[in-house]
Specification:
This protein has 3 helices and no strands. By secondary structure, it is mainly α. It has one domain.
Length: 96
């Protein structure tokens, strides 16, 4: 089946991951207000869904989309870290 067949890798894909637990508490605390605002915003939709289903299914399967968190000063250190690492990755990929 593989006679006269060559295998080559022409499009390698680097995957970068970072473990930075020092930002976990800050990110959780900083995002709570955004999550709560999203929950408040979607209450009418949840109520309507419960009426359609004729039962209270809480928010099971519901997805909350918050507004932008990019200008939140509570997340500024995390955003700076992400920006710095993004720049470092671009340099590593040859975009200087």
């Amino acid at each position: 089946m593989f006679n006269n067949t060559n295998k080559g890798f022409y499009f390698p894909t680097p995957v970068y991951s970072f473990e930075v637990p020092q930002f976990l508490d800050m990110a959780n605390k900083g995002c709570i207000k955004h999550l709560q605002a999203a929950k408040d915003f979607y209450q009418k939709d949840l109520k309507k869904r419960n009426e359609i289903l004729n039962k209270d299914v809480k928010d099971m399967g519901f997805v909350y989309h918050s507004g932008s968190i990019t200008n939140d000063p509570d997340l500024a250190d995390l955003q700076k870290y992400i920006g710095d690492m993004s720049y470092t990755i671009l340099i590593d990929m040859g975009y200087t």
